[in-house]
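We read letters as residues; the fold follows as tokens. A sample entry reads:
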Amino acid sequence: MNTLMRAIGIAVIIFIAAPLVIIVPMSFSTASSLQFPPPGYWLGYYASYFSDPSWLRPTWNSIFIAGATTTLTMVLVVPATFALVRHRFWGKSVANLMMMMPMAVPHIVMAVGYYSVFGQMRLVHTHTGVILAHTCLSVPITFLVLSANLKGFDRTLERAARSLGASPIQTFVHVTLPILRPGLMISALFAFIQSFDETVVAIFISGRNAETLPRKMFDSIRQEADPVIAVISSLLFLVVALSLIAPHVFRAVRARMPARGQEKALIAQ
């Protein structure tokens, strides 16, 4: 059974990573469009990406919008999660359903609704409009992750802190927050990824001034199949790979530092 599961896992990894075998070489291609195998190799499209404002502006827009969306989502979801998980009140089931509703409705339907409402509020083609729309889309997944962590939280730790004289704020800062920190970080990461990767709503309401990177990539591949798209895909893959490797490298370095300190102490003796 273990061998079978391992084989299935390897097959899934290969299936997911297979597009990278095509995308990464294409980012170094000398072809004028997306072509595989590449007729030649160079770094020209990387230089084009880092020197072209039409690509850099959407990139910075996406980073800014995703960061603002993450902040606003956490500000809204954290207290809402505590209220829904730890308290009983009239209309709790309805509130829980409303928190999950954006996940059940197709994005194209949400996009039409946002365009209609934000158009009346003059928020279409603005950063604020995109941030608000992305926040609504990020709430369900953030709520699911955080509520799962909060339901598994041992509240006797909080009661012990209160019995020792800690105030509610001190209990939250020194007991609750450190234990929930991994869940909060994962929730924030999901909110950031949801906003950074969202395309449908951005096509409807982002406009030229608030154009996001996924919208720019969609427009580019629809009009001209610019090979810079392969460059961006490769860079995003590199960022994800470094993010996964960095914690392991950091732990390895920290594990070796005490050993080196002990060796120096023995040498000094």
